[in-house]
Design a protein that fits this description.
alpha/beta; CBS-domain; four-stranded mixed beta sheet; 7 strands; 18% strand; globular
Length: 152
């Protein structure tokens, strides 16, 4: 099975000049946990609900006064519509992310694939297995993995 068969098509994209409040409102309206940053031709980053919590709320910043570009994750890892689902799982595990923008053959964004999309089609049995994909340095009980120095 290919990513194009399970991804969410269509894009929620926000300008890097938008405020975090504007982006968060769009995320809430679309009922999504992340919004791509840039335009339909080129992505500049991704803003997740976690980015907003860690970089705005915890720091006591005003979401109406902070630009998306200042708190977004600027490093993007992506996949292509034609990639197998296993590629996306491996990329998410390697990069410790829960979502990947999906690009068409010309490199333009066409959607997003989330860990939840993959779990429905790969029969990943439970939440703990999903957690391991994005947190491979911890075991099921949350205890440090002695084989991975990053878990210290």
């Amino acid at each position: 099975m290919r990513i194009g068969e399970v991804m969410t098509r269509g894009l929620e994209i926000v300008s890097p000049d938008a405020t975090v409040k504007e982006a968060a409102t769009r995320m809430a309206d679309a009922d999504v946990g992340a919004i791509l940053v840039g335009n339909v031709d080129e992505l500049q980053g991704i803003l997740t609900d976690r980015d907003i919590i860690i970089r705005v709320v915890v720091e006591g910043k005003d979401p109406g006064a902070v630009d998306v570009r200042d708190v977004m994750s600027a490093t993007l890892f992506s996949c292509s519509e034609g990639d197998p689902l296993e590629f996306a799982v491996a990329e998410m595990k390697k990069r410790q992310v829960r979502r990947l923008p999906v690009l068409d053959a010309s490199g333009k964004p066409v959607g997003i694939v989330a860990l939840s999309d993959l779990s429905r089609h790969l029969n990943l049995p439970d939440v703990e297995q999903l957690r391991r994909i994005v947190e491979p340095h911890r075991d099921v009980d949350g205890v440090r993995d002695p084989d991975n120095p990053q878990s210290e």
